[in-house]
Amino acid sequence: MQVTLIAGGVGGARMALALQEALPPGDLTVIGNVGDDCEHWGLSISPDLDTVLYTLTGRIDPVNGWGVAGDTRRLMDTAIELGEDDWFILGDKDVALHVARTRRLRAGEALSSITADVARRWGCATRLVPATDDRLRTWIATDDGELPFQEWLVRRRAADPVAGVRFEGIEEATPAPGVLAAIAAADGIRAAIADRRDDVVAVSPVIGGKAVKGPLVEMLASMGHRPDAIGVARYLQPLAGAYVLDPEDAGLADDLDALAMRAIVVPTLLKEPAVRAGVAAAVLA
Amino acid sequence: MQVTLIAGGVGGARMALALQEALPPGDLTVIGNVGDDCEHWGLSISPDLDTVLYTLTGRIDPVNGWGVAGDTRRLMDTAIELGEDDWFILGDKDVALHVARTRRLRAGEALSSITADVARRWGCATRLVPATDDRLRTWIATDDGELPFQEWLVRRRAADPVAGVRFEGIEEATPAPGVLAAIAAADGIRAAIADRRDDVVAVSPVIGGKAVKGPLVEMLASMGHRPDAIGVARYLQPLAGAYVLDPEDAGLADDLDALAMRAIVVPTLLKEPAVRAGVAAAVLA
Hints:
Two copies of one chain form a homodimer.
Chain A: E1 3-7, H1 10-22, E2 28-32, E3 38-40, E4 43-45, H2 47-56, H3 74-81, H4 92-106, H5 111-121, E5 127-130, E6 137-142, E7 145-148, H6 149-155, E8 164-168, H7 179-183, H8 189-195, E9 201-203, E10 206-207, E11 210-211, H9 216-222, H10 229-236, E12 242-245, H11 253-258, E13 262-265, H12 273-284
Parallel strand pairs in A: 1-2, 2-5, 9-12, 12-13
Antiparallel strand pairs in A: 3-4, 6-7, 6-8, 10-11
Helix pairs in contact in A: 1-2, 1-12
């Protein structure tokens, strides 16, 4: 069974691992977010792709949920001595991936090709494809002006209320090779997903009014949306016919009915292998 | 007393340290070689400048004579997993300098400005100035064609006989800010040195027919020159009025007379502080 997962960072990476563990090798394709990509120290960094890659290949730091387990910061300590920015943490092993990716991008290779090659070298059975090879950047509108996503999230610790979100390059960006095939050919990622709404299952990234990781709930609230699993479901309603809720949110099932989305209630905090197996089985069923 | 040293890599760095230890802080300027610079993993690397910088600030690996003492290779191990070239050894702390320099060069800052700032941040009392901010690259002609210097030296271990040496960019390169002032204003580095030949002391990099470090003697031999201290002295004859020989080469003093160069005989293998103090005193006298 060919299954495609569209994933962001920490939570999406764990869902990808859940499906990878549940499916035969080669049956899973993960379409990764590149909207959070950034340049730091002159290096091209794809935080969400890397989190998926590190998670699927057993490299992920289990405490942080990002970066490489047991990584050191010898390079970073020296870079800070030399006056480089100190707010984005980059471990020594992690920088190797960024250096290699930066070199290859500058040499003209597509991000999707680099990502596939790295996954292959690390023996990853899952295809990982960036949503687009084109430049796509998220900007957050705040009272202090528009900030690059990582500056807003990491440097300023997501403390500025979000007045708006802008995706620079979204009009020109085209799906990377393999993205549309993984969904079913269509003339755009979103259209391709909507065409198969009945087969699309979304997994709530919000449990009991709290995000698994990151500032999602605060972003929803400051933009005037419901700060819970339903606030996210309203975004996904045109695309997904079913929505996975944690038992803690079972009371929200009626709200899903009103959105014509089928509720699937199963534990979704994916740190434990048993929970991963359960949610993977529920989604695949 | 303002003193200017024109230095290459390991041997030159030790001579710089000898003079730095012998002079009051601020009296020494080192003009560093950039002809061996290279791009590796997409990073801009200046091996000779870095060796001088690491030596003058106590960071140098005393065993290798290059790189940072106690540095690790965690980034390099991962880069090799990802298919990057494995023949140029880059430690984790060392890469931090290359990453910072690469970012700043791409942002338009001059190599001399970056180098001065790094030296200042690391508390280096000596001014270190690259000979030029322009792109200058050394190519080695071999039977297998022309090779970039570091490929010839490191990747192929200097095993290919040298048919010729070409300095790409030498015609267009202009002295970096501070270089001419450090020698005395003139319309070119070489002319500036030759104008002060009587004040210029060269230190032989060859002792007993062996280079302190590197393939110098083999290069001399394969290009048809004398493979000893005199082979080098003939290159320096128009520029330097005096030449420091190790006692092991005292018998070559007559050959120096024929070149109108004054022989200064003093131990020159500069690993030990006492030897450094002796050669610095002899040169300054």
